[in-house]
Amino acid sequence: MAIGSAFLVTAALATPAAFADGTASVDSGRSAFRAQAVAAGLTAAEATALQKAVDAALAQDGGKQTAANEIRYADGRLLLPLPGEKYARELDKSGKKAAKAHTCTYKALCGYSGRGYTGAEREWFSCVFHKKPSSWKSGGSWYNNQKRGRVGDWYSPTKKWLGSTKPAPWGTTHGQWRGVGYVKPC
Fold it and tell me: Dihedrals φ, ψ of 53, to 5°?
């Protein structure tokens, strides 16, 4: 193979795939997430906005993107609402229909960025300290969907106990993330 041909092949492999709206995919994983978002009814601009929100959450708190609107952590997951929707939902389980209420998985303690179980949904499962999402500064809500009778505890950034939820199943539509640094479901 000629040197010029090898350069062209290498450049083609390193060049991101372009989309009709001018955006580019860095890798095939992103292309699959974008396709999932479009299949859920999002426009190209909405799919781009959703990916930007996922990228911002990944940059702040780490994790691994596993769906167009989902980030997985060793201790649970974060679901982001689709553009124009109030509630977070799993794309592969809800089809194109918007969720009507929280989707907190059984045996999880779930936090929401907005009041009334709206906005991003963070699920925690294991009985250890979990850092709450960095961007959650005030407002919010939570739902304790652990095994019946278990509580969720809130701690400051220095791990000083702040309070507990009522025993599961229980939720509040008007919570306050200000001052909370860690969550511990047990």
Answer: -65, -40
